[in-house]
Write a structure and sequence with these properties.
Blueprint (H helix, E strand, L loop, with lengths): L8 H10 L3 H10 L9 E6 L2 E7 L4 E6 L2 H4 L1 H13 L3 E6 H6 L1 H12 L5
Parallel strand pairs: 3-4
Antiparallel strand pairs: 1-2, 2-3
């Protein structure tokens, strides 16, 4: 993922790491330290985007969306399409899913990391 950022992205990602939402903090506690067998990065810059969580090894992105995303659906759809074109799988969860249905969210992430053979 080296070389895929711009000048804006690095400082912005650092600032976002310090001001994560409650849902992002909650999920990070479950993703950090290779708890799922792979390394995740948080608030990681990619081109002009800041990814909430990314596992570069498995090309998996996990986005945690708050209410502001309901108004920006077209932007989020375009962003997801661009990330998919770059080879990533993008999972999106609402804040309330992460906070109140954490085990289900973790199962979806686990399944994406460990797809069953056809």
């Amino acid at each position: 993922m080296q070389g895929q950022t711009n000048e804006f992205s690095k400082p912005a990602s650092r600032a976002l790491r310090k001001s994560m939402t409650d849902a992002e903090r909650h999920l990070w506690q479950r993703l950090r330290g290779k708890q799922l067998g792979v390394k995740f990065r948080r608030q990681h810059p990619f081109e002009t985007y800041i990814l909430d969580f990314v596992c570069p090894e498995r090309m998996l992105i996990v986005e945690v969306d708050g209410s502001q995303h309901a108004k920006n659906q077209d932007y989020d759809d375009l962003r997801s399409r661009k990330l998919k074109l770059a080879g990533y799988t993008v999972l999106r969860f609402w804040n309330n899913e992460v906070l109140y249905r954490t085990d289900e969210v973790m199962q979806v992430i686990w399944n994406a990391l460990n797809p069953s053979p056809p």
